[in-house]
Every structure is written in structure tokens, then in C-alpha cells.
Design goal:
10 helices; Rossmann fold; 10 strands; about 20% strand; alpha/beta; 2 domains; 10-stranded mixed sheet
Length: about 300
């Protein structure tokens, strides 16, 4: 059952995980809800890599005691910055992904760190954060230090990718909520790809009415946002119709805002877990994957109810 009064954060003692806990603390404070710190207690592999064994490494009482100290220390550090915030802690024996995935079923959002690996490498998708984003439930947020550092002083922009899919509608709702909480501008981006049309026409002297397509796509974007604008009338909204592939356009636009002399920043990019045209059985679409790897800011991957 969804606990509407809880934002959860996975911690493991790393700096990336503490950054995620800070992000979650700011969000929980804005919402007036409880922050839940979750730690998975897992025994290290013998020799540092998997070995043939009939028995899995066992969690000991000392490991559980270290976990309790980590949770206690992290709570104290967060309370220093958020004295009125309600914080609860939980530890559970087991691998991180199943433990965090279980908590993602109930929380408003599960926040995790970006693991500190190179964004341009495929190693990222062997990480706990990436697997949680693919198999988790509700909203999974990959928090990055760049946006955590300014979350308390700069509301920034919230950028959301819109493509007309059910996952996109869920992403729009979460993006509006975050923008309202932050006092931020919501930038809704919809893209259409003109390159296949041009290749398909070949050398035929037929002009594409690109501006007409832009106008039609803008009307579709207005339709997608209409109900949400009524629910959040005080959120400033900018609509952008861009030509090309979704992920590069989202990343390029967000980066351009972040790079403009500090006047505006992108604090958060929100995407659906699988967009229009996603293959059945794939829990995370190519756009979501690309944005998670390459974004300079935090990314929220929103699953629809029952997805994952």
C-alpha cells in the first residue's frame, strides 16, 4: 500500500548515497512528509568477487550494528540542516536492489545516488541505481550532487518529456507537483523527428511543412497539459516543440539552461519509464536510459501504477 506521507532514500555509506539522502530531505521538508532512510545489510563477497559456494555469505550482528550506526549518523547530519523534519530509519538483510525495490512500492518516491560511475560508460547500467530505476515502482529519483548543492537556494527549472503515452502522463503529474513545491518553472518538451520523413522522400521535390507539423504538435502538447494546468494554476509553464530524437533534445535543452550564467538552472528532468513506441517487456525505454546516463542534474523516472 502506498504511504503518501513518506519519501524514502537508500543509503550505503557512500558520498553519492548521502547526496541522495540530502535531496530526499529537501523534498520531504517541502512536502511536509516523513523521510525514511533505508539501508540494505549485505555480507561482502569472499575475496571480493563471486566464487562457487553452496552457502551465501551470512550477515552478522556486527554488520547490523555498523548499519545501525550509519543510519544514526546520517540522521544526525540531516537533522542539523532540517531540525523539524521527521526522519525514520530501517535496515533489512538482503541485496540492495530487492530491498529498495520493496520500499519503492509504498513510498511517494525512492531517491538513490548515481553511484559515482562514469556517465558515458555502460558500467552505469550494472549499478544498483540503474536496476532500481528499471525494476522499481512509482517514482525513482537518481540524485546528482550538482542539483543537491543548490536545491535549498535555487528553485531552478523542472523539465519534463511529453510524448502522449500513459507513462508520460504520470511524469507530467510528478513534474507539476515538484515545480509547485519548488516555486519553479515547468518546461514541457515534446519532440518529433523530421529526419525519417526527409530520408523517405529521397530526391523527390516535395517540401515538408515543418512549421505546420510544429503547430500541430504544439496543440497536442497543450492538450496533454490542459488538466494539469487547471490543478496547478500557479506553476509557470513553458512549452517547447523540438525536432529530433527525444533524449538528445531533452539533454541539450536542460544543459543550455544550466549553462546560462547562473540565471536559470535545470534542477530536475522528469521522464516516463517507457515512452510511446516502447517494446512490451522492456521496463525502461531508451530515452529514460540515455537521460539517466548523461544528465548533469537529478533525474526522476516515473512508472505508472502496476508497472515494473
Amino acid at each position: 500500500m502506498l504511504e503518501t506521507g513518506v519519501i524514502a532514500a537508500g543509503i550505503d555509506g557512500s558520498q553519492a548515497a548521502f547526496g541522495a539522502a540530502r535531496w530526499a530531505a529537501f523534498d520531504a521538508q517541502r512536502r511536509g512528509v516523513t523521510l525514511r532512510l533505508v539501508h540494505a545489510v549485505v555480507a561482502p563477497l569472499v575475496g571480493g568477487y563471486p566464487e562457487p559456494s553452496l552457502l551465501a555469505p551470512q550477515v552478522t550482528d556486527k554488520m547490523r550494528e555498523r548499519a545501525a550506526r550509519l543510519l544514526h549518523t546520517t540522521t544526525d547530519r540531516l537533522r542539523a540542516d532540517h531540525p523539524g523534519l521527521r526522519i525514520e530509519t530501517t535496515q533489512q538483510d538482503g541485496p540492495p536492489v530487492p530491498v529498495l525495490m520493496d520500499h519503492s512500492r509504498r513510498a511517494l518516491a525512492m531517491v538513490v545516488g548515481a553511484d559515482g560511475v562514469g556517465r558515458l560508460t555502460g558500467v552505469f547500467f550494472g549499478s544498483a541505481s540503474a536496476r532500481l530505476a528499471e525494476h522499481g515502482h512509482g517514482c525513482i529519483i537518481i540524485a546528482r550532487p550538482e542539483s543537491v548543492a543548490t536545491a535549498d537556494s535555487d528553485p531552478g527549472d523542472v523539465v519534463v518529456g511529453v510524448d502522449g503515452s500513459p507513462q508520460s502522463q504520470a511524469a507530467i503529474g510528478f513534474a507539476y507537483e515538484e515545480a509547485a513545491l519548488r516555486g519553479a518553472t515547468l518546461v514541457a518538451i515534446h519532440t518529433w523527428n523530421d529526419k525519417p520523413l526527409r530520408r523517405g522522400l529521397g530526391s523527390y521535390p516535395l517540401e515538408i511543412d515543418a512549421s505546420g507539423i510544429d503547430q500541430a504538435q504544439h496543440r497536442l502538447l497543450e492538450t496533454e497539459l490542459a488538466g494539469w494546468e487547471q490543478k496547478y494554476p500557479d506553476v509557470p509553464v513553458q512549452m517547447r516543440i523540438l525536432r529530433g530524437r527525444p533524449a538528445p533534445n531533452l539533454l541539450r535543452y536542460a544543459h543550455q539552461i544550466t549553462s546560462t550564467n547562473g540565471e536559470r538552472r535545470t534542477q530536475l528532468i522528469v521522464v516516463g519509464s517507457r515512452g510511446r513506441g516502447g517494446f512490451t517487456g522492456l521496463l525502461l525505454g531508451s530515452t529514460s536510459q540515455a537521460v539517466m546516463i548523461h544528465a548533469d542534474c537529478s533525474v526522476a523516472v516515473v512508472h505508472t501504477a502496476g508497472a515494473g
